[in-house]
Automatic annotation (TrEMBL):
Record-given protein name: Fibronectin type-III domain-containing protein
Organism annotation: Tichowtungia aerotolerans
CDD domains cross-referenced by the UniProt entry: FN3 (cd00063)
UniProt superkingdom: Bacteria
Residues of the Fibronectin type-III domain: 8-109
InterPro entries: EF_Hand_1_Ca_BS, FN3_dom, FN3_sf, Ig-like_fold
SUPFAM superfamilies: Fibronectin type III (SSF49265)
PROSITE patterns: EF_HAND_1, FN3
Amino acid sequence: MLKTIFRMTFGIIFAAVWFCEAISITVEWEPAQTTVNGDPLEEIHYYKLFYGTTSGRYTDYITVTNGTSVRLTDLEYNKTLYFCVRTCSGPVESDYSEELFWTAPVMPDSDFDGLSDDWETFYFGSLHRAGSSTDSDGNGVIDLEEFIAGTDPMNPSDRPILRISPDGAVYFFAEKAGGSGYENRTRKYRLLHSSSLAEGNWTPVPDMDDIQAENQLVTCGVPMDRAPGYYRTEIYLD
Ligand SMILES: [Ca+2]
Ligand SMILES: [Ca+2]
Ligand SMILES: [Ca+2]
């Protein structure tokens, strides 16, 4: 099987605004020696660098005519890219190289408080007003929880809510992660049940775990013969 040795290096370029970084990587490779059919590649004219966000599925490629490396700029945070390369001699091409992947760093959090810098800047205009334990709107939900839940940290009436309907179903709105600071993040929910607040012992309700938020109403019927209990949601970002 044909293999092209393929290596990558990466670095981060810091832009003029310190909390606004741009990511770039340099991808390098070595030329393949043979065509798809195993014949020698007579003369190398260019390379095709394929890439995509799913392994084995390359949605785009770059043609490189000068050298065996290319610099990719303005890449997104929290995203994994998969690469492979083909060596081309006119219309004749080598096989695909082996695949390598690169995972971009997570969204910057320059003051290490768990709040993405973009989110802090969007709501507070600064990184210094909110931290890991502040509750800027005083509604009992700290800013870190508001960031995870996607609620407005400056609006006390906007908070995660779990409701129960008259017919005994518990339900909540699963808000999709989006906007400043949530690029490539996925918000997920799970519904937990406990028969006693005193004992704790919260356990996931069957089929109500790892729910990906797509701006949908999530409803869980509670059997009328079930013993009295308590419910709560857990919200997290992937
Ligand atoms: Ca931060
Ligand atoms: Ca902060
Ligand atoms: Ca709050």
